[in-house]
Amino acid sequence: MAADEGSQDTLRLQFKAMQEMQHRRLQKQMEKRKEKELSLKSKADDQKESLEISDGLSLLQAREQNSKNSFELRVLEDEIEQLREQLRETVDENGRLYKLLKERDFEIQHLKKKIEEDRFAFTGTAGVAGDVIATRIVELSKKNRVLMAESEGAKTRVKQLSNRIQELERESQTPPVEQGHSLSSSWSLRSWNGLHVLEKTYGASPYMAKEPMLEEVKRLSQVTQCVVVP
């Protein structure tokens, strides 16, 4: 009996020791699981915070980019409006110059006709009077050639103005292809090149070229009016 009781006590002790070992093993597993869960939660929080910061930065950058694009678009619209205003002024100026040119052509044709009439009227005249008339006809012919040369110069200026009008129409009708600094710079460069063409043509800016051209046309008209036909 004593041997059986000793054997049972030994078994109970072994069973109790096994239970304790299993309990400690379960505790360790639970502790590891908690540590793993805490680690995963910490990583998730870090990722969430990082995403929130990234989203905030992206939103801020997007707002700054939109503000920049809006400013550049306004600058571009201002340049287009300036080109259109310059186009209207150039069209008006070209119309006035073309009208004056037509009047000059009419005066030249009238002068040619008058020279021919004088030539036929005094054909066969002898003596001093005939020499005076011939000299007068030569002078009128020279003046006529000068007027024709000046008229050709005016035609050339009209052609240059017409080309400039076409150029301004193309520039003012070109829509914005892209927004950004490069687009604004591109339109600024085209505007500067157009102004430089008019500066080379008239020796001044396009806004200062109107009065010199009108003065030139007025001077040409005065030259024509000064011609005295006998």
UniProtKB/TrEMBL annotation:
Residue ranges that the Swiss-Prot or TrEMBL entry lists as coiled coil: 66-100
Signal peptide, first to last residue: none
Keywords: Coiled coil
Regions of compositional bias (Basic and acidic residues) in chain numbering: 28-50
The keyword Coiled coil appears for this protein: yes
Keyword Coiled coil: yes
Region (Disordered): 20-50
Superkingdom of origin organism: Eukaryota
Listed name of the protein: Coiled-coil domain containing 13
Organism: Equus caballus
